[in-house]
Amino acid sequence: MEIMGEDASRPLSRFTVIEVNDTGVPSCLRMAASLATRIAADLGATVIKVEPPGGDIVRRLPPLLPRGPEAERSALFQYLNTGKRSVVLDLASADGMAGALTLAGKADAVVFEAPCRGADALRHTAATPIEIAAFATDMDRRPVSEFTIAALAGLLHMVGEPDRQPLRLGGHQVPYAAGLTAFTGLSAALAARSLSRTAPSVRVSLAEAAQWVNWKATSGAHAAGHSPGREGGQSEFQIVRCADGYVAVVFTVSQWAPLRDLIGDPRLADSMFATRAGRRQHVGALYAIMAPWFADKTRQDVQRLAQSRGVPFGPVFTPAELLEAEQYRSRGFLADLQHPTLGALRLPQLPVQWNGRSFAPHAAPSLADAPARAAE
User: Fold this and answer.
1) What angle (nearest 5°) sits at the alpha carbon of residue 108, between those of residues 1 and 128?
2) In which band, very low, low, confident or very high, does the pLDDT at 224 lie, cut at 50, 70 and 90?
3) Which residues share a beta bridge with 129?
4) SS3 of residue 17 by DSSP
5) pLDDT reported for residue 375
6) Domain range annotation of the chain
7) Are 158 and 169 in contact (CB under 8 A)?
């Protein structure tokens, strides 16, 4: 297989990255690795995805698209792997492992999950190793999941009602945070290689990345002697119903006065609401006064009126509504591409720009026949 960049106009087009998948790896690790390499692919890197026999486990995860081959219908898989090339290699066999090592020997970086077969060998190829693990050290090898990592990091202690069981966070925040972290390490390694410098190896821990996301727990414990927990209806910032949905009520100390004037209820001038401590102590009374103001206004009305006062209220959108959100449209955030077997797909592009340029995902080749290309 000849490995070369296809689009010289993209900033990482001169680099090749190998993503090595193995069987028995938790999906949270796989998603982190796949996101890191998906970003690299969007920026022009040639990404070769090594899948185990039977394919990446993410191929079978929901949500599923209504059409297309079974191996390609996972919308999550398409999001994480658009723009990559795929081969199938069995790392349990000598030939399969040799094939993965050969690919890594021709690449600039190799991204893999720990533990996986051949991890020690992958760390010592010509490619810079980018390793993604559940923990900072191999303290145990028991199965882990996104839910357990979020629990260990205290994230489940931050959301929901205090008197009920923890709720799973929406989306895949933990592996995506780790994937962004891994891409940061990957980009630093590629920058070092481009300057003919030694690129240090990178090891990313999902547990540490999740703890970094939940920095408020650590800072809160340091400041108050205990971590902030689930406050439910006693939370300072809440979701409030309006005429056509919900609005997120958020404001800083300096924005209290314009918020009070926006609502326009004289009861908000009571001294018990004059300080943040007072507002937190009487949060139930505060929202009881404010809620009627939202009830007869649409989300657009609330946002327009709040912005006119410098108050950062924000509408709560459904996923379907986000497809038509004004901000996404104006930034061209959602890109349309043509998939050879699935037809038209709409995928998010990178939410950052590179020297003022945006990069839409590459149109993906079909991966349904990946086993047939394993011997290329």
Assistant:
1) 130
2) confident
3) 110
4) strand
5) 33
6) 16-216+355-373, 236-318
7) no
CATH superfamily, domain 236-318, is: formyl-coa transferase, domain 3 (3.30.1540.10)
pTM: 0.88
Q: What is the predicted pLDDT for the residue at 232? A: 81
Q: Locate 266 and state its tokens.
A: 């004289």
Contact partners, residue 74, CB within 8 Å, separation at least 6 = 58, 59, 60, 61, 62, 63, 64, 65
Q: HSE-up of 375 (CA within 13 Å, CB side)?
A: 1
Q: Is the pLDDT of residue 226 over 80?
A: no
The pLDDT tens digits of the residues spanning 297-325 come to 999 999 999 999 999 999 999 988 998 88
DSSP string covering 66-109, please? SSS-GGG-BHHHHHHHTT-EEEE--TTSHHHHHHHHHHHHTSSE
Token digits for 193?
């290689």
- 16-216+355-373: CATH topology: Rossmann fold (3.40.50)
